[in-house]
UniProtKB/TrEMBL annotation:
Main location: membrane
Matching CDD domains: BTB_POZ_Shaker-like
One Pfam family in the UniProt entry: BTB_2
Domain of life: Eukaryota
Molecular-function GO term, any one: delayed rectifier potassium channel activity
Residues annotated as domain BTB: 12-112
Biological process, per Gene Ontology: action potential; protein homooligomerization
Alphabetized PANTHER family for the sequence: POTASSIUM VOLTAGE-GATED CHANNEL PROTEIN SHAKER (PTHR11537:SF113), VOLTAGE-GATED POTASSIUM CHANNEL (PTHR11537)
Protein name from the UniProt record: BTB domain-containing protein
The entry's keywords: Cell membrane, Ion channel, Ion transport, Membrane, Transmembrane, Transmembrane helix, Transport
Membrane topology designation: Multi-pass membrane protein
Compartment(s) of residence: Cell membrane
GO cellular component, one term: voltage-gated potassium channel complex
Length: 130
């Protein structure tokens, strides 16, 4: 019986302190979304506190439950009822969840997506249009 090779780096637990409230998750959970602030080691390192061995963010605490759930659920984003829309939108931007997550969130919140209208091909019409 051979043990299955296993990369223990991905099981490493990380502590994220959001304005005094500590959250714990696995590194592999964050690494699922490498284009985000928490998913990219190079971006999140600036928030690391080596004395406490944790990442510290002076951000909105109630929002972070939903931000962390985004990582844990594979990309589902739901605004907590006690967090205003504008505050949660700022948190999405701060954690760099991306355009896809932002658009999905806005759609779920009932925002109407504006369709881009192509510019007219005729030069005169284009000048009038602009």
């Amino acid at each position: 019986f051979e043990p299955i090779p296993h990369d223990h780096d991905f099981c490493e637990r990380v502590v994220i302190n959001v304005s005094g409230l500590r959250f714990e998750t696995q590194l592999r959970t964050l690494n699922q979304f490498p284009d985000t602030l928490l998913g990219d080691p190079a971006r999140r390192i600036r928030y690391f506190d080596p004395l406490r061995n944790e990442y510290f963010f002076d951000r909105n605490r109630p929002s972070f439950d939903a931000i962390l759930y985004y990582y844990q659920s594979g990309g589902r984003l739901r605004r907590p009822v006690n967090v205003p829309l504008d505050v949660f939108s700022e948190e999405i931007k701060f954690y760099e969840l991306g355009e896809l997550a932002t658009n999905k969130f806005r759609e779920d919140e009932g925002f109407i997506k504006e369709e881009e209208k192509p510019l007219p091909t005729h030069e005169f019409q284009r000048k009038v249009w602009l």
